[in-house]
User: What shape does this take?
Amino acid sequence: MLDLKLWQARLVSELGSIVKKVGYSSGIAEALKKTVVLSPSVYVVPKSEQNEDRDSTGFHGSLATASTDIVIVARDYGDATGNRATDELKTVTDAVFSALNGWLPSDASTRIHQRSSKRYGMLKGALIWVVTYDCQYIKGE
Assistant: This one.
């Protein structure tokens, strides 16, 4: 598994004062428990990993593709439907994209790229957006 603390550190250094919190969570539901007060906030959440056998290419291991969700929470206390939270959300998603897309973590074999981006839902006036990023690394070498 990739060291997602590197991702968290990258987001902390790149997002600066744009967000109130950059955290790590074991799952989206766990991240959402932490969203009651802090907005906007960003959470790094491991998603999945797929391995491809690499013996035929001379590697003694496999090429793992790791997917990681970045959960972005934007709250608007004056609007339960989240309409005014979308401006804040766009600012944060653009900043996350700039920080991660094309970045090469020290433990990876390929640069990170964004795979998908979608609205997860609303929670107590907070708009939840999930962006999935993929990255590859050699596993078991």
In short: Strands lie at 21-24, 41-53, 62-75, 113-123, 126-139. The chain is about 25% helix and 40% strand. The two ends are 13 Å apart (CA to CA).
